[in-house]
Amino acid sequence: MTFDGNWKIDRNDNYEKFMEQMGINMVKRKLAAHDNLKITIQQTGDKFHVKESSSFRTLEIDFTLGVTFEYSLADGTELSGSWNMEGDMLKGIFNRKDNGKQLTTTRIVQGDELIQSYNYEGVDAKRIFKRG
């Protein structure tokens, strides 16, 4: 499948501003901007296995498209939501448990890059990963 493989963070676009909007403190924002995140994605039909490894933690997530699940961000923010396919794009809509506000995330593969985009309270950001 398109998303299958190992992905390593290459660069960020407006990520610190996004984290600030999410309420993440300055020290954690500085650390997260240089987290050396690696993502491994395995897709089987509508089921995904995702492993996230960074300087801070390693986390494995299993989800099925369209099925709500719980997830915690690296800073401890708890979310509930689901991923769906929209054409070639994975789109996740998650609600924060602490304030009910919505976080939208998309993943799309363009060439040898995985582009992960975020929107929270009108602030957009991207994290771009390279295969490898």
Automatic annotation (TrEMBL):
PROSITE patterns named among the record's database cross-references: FABP
Matches recorded under InterPro entries: Calycin, Fatty_acid-bd, ILBP, Lipocln_cytosolic_FA-bd_dom
Annotated Cytosolic fatty-acid binding proteins domain ranges read 5-22
Q: Which GO terms describe its molecular function?
A: retinal binding; retinol binding
Answer whether the UniProt record assigns the keyword Transport to this protein: yes
Record Pfam families: Lipocalin
| Key words of the record | Retinol-binding, Transport, Vitamin A
The domain of life for this entry's organism is Eukaryota
**Does the keyword Electron transport feature in the UniProt annotation?**
no
So what does this one do? Cytosolic CRABPs may regulate the access of retinoic acid to the nuclear retinoic acid receptors.
Q: Which family does it belong to?
A: Belongs to the calycin superfamily. Fatty-acid binding protein (FABP) family.
Q: What is this protein called?
A: Cellular retinoic acid-binding protein 1
Q: Which organism is it from?
A: Perca fluviatilis (European perch)
